[in-house]
TrEMBL record:
Keywords: Transferase. One of its GO terms (molecular function) is transferase activity. It comes from the Bacteria. This is 4'-phosphopantetheinyl transferase family protein. It comes from Dokdonia genika. InterPro entries: 4-PPantetheinyl_Trfase_dom, 4-PPantetheinyl_Trfase_dom_sf. Residues 111-192 form the 4'-phosphopantetheinyl transferase domain. Gene3D superfamilies: 4'-phosphopantetheinyl transferase domain (3.90.470.20). SUPFAM superfamilies: 4'-phosphopantetheinyl transferase. The lineage of its organism: Bacteria, Pseudomonadati, Bacteroidota, Flavobacteriia, Flavobacteriales.
């Protein structure tokens, strides 16, 4: 089974990454049941799965349940707030992400957020919506701009999930400190409704994808 990577950030924070290679039926048939359970999904999540039109989205959804199993949980340990934010019944914090053939979760004792993005030139067209684009003109190649902008988008997306406040703007309220392309960590600040918070941002790349998580 393609558990792609696990990262122990600290004794209380762990990241699990899955590379989606199996069929939907394989992902369903190999998912372990929890003690006393007769179904692999809650009724709510089964309804969500059935409503998905894309096979890749369905496989991504099921692969996340495999990541939960790697962390010692089942789908029945997970619930969603009205805003769609995932939570665990035991009080630990969780964040979930899916992009094409990769999924990931991060679990922590404190609020966290994670994002995976495929590196695509589309990021160049939408960059002005989430960051001052003129800051990136010093990069000499479009490939470098794509990589760095994807990092910045991922950092802001991870903090958006962590902060979980309606009205939070990527462009106006979240600022990512500049970093070198080979950096594995930076910081970011959220200034919203008169409050200011600073977070550690962790950066990595693999197989044309960018993964960012914020603590």
């Amino acid at each position: 089974m393609p558990l792609y990577k696990t990262i122990t950030v600290s004794p209380t924070i762990k990241v699990y990454i899955w590379k989606i290679e199996e069929s939907l039926e394989t992902l369903k048939s190999t998912l372990p049941l929890g003690e006393g359970q007769t179904h692999i999904l809650t009724p709510h999540c089964q309804k969500r799965l059935d409503s998905m039109k894309s096979d890749l989205h369905q496989r991504g959804f099921m692969s996340i349940r495999h990541l939960l199993a790697e962390a010692g949980y089942t789908d029945f340990d997970l619930y969603y707030s009205p805003s769609g934010k995932p939570h665990l019944h035991d009080g630990k914090h969780i964040s979930i992400t899916h992009s094409y053939t990769f999924t990931a979760i991060i679990i922590s004792d404190n609020p966290v957020g994670i994002d995976i993005e495929k590196q695509r030139d589309k990021i160049l067209r939408i960059a002005h919506k989430f960051t001052p684009i003129e800051e990136y003109y010093t990069l000499t190649s479009s490939e470098a701009r794509i990589r760095k902008l994807t990092y910045v988008w991922g950092a802001k997306e991870s903090l958006y999930k962590l902060y979980n406040q309606e009205g939070l703007s990527f462009l106006k309220h979240i600022d990512v400190q500049d970093f070198e392309m080979d950096a594995s960590q930076t910081t970011a600040r959220v200034v919203y409704n008169g409050a200011s918070s600073t977070y550690a941002i962790y950066l990595m790349e693999f197989e044309g994808f960018t993964c960012v998580y914020g603590l």
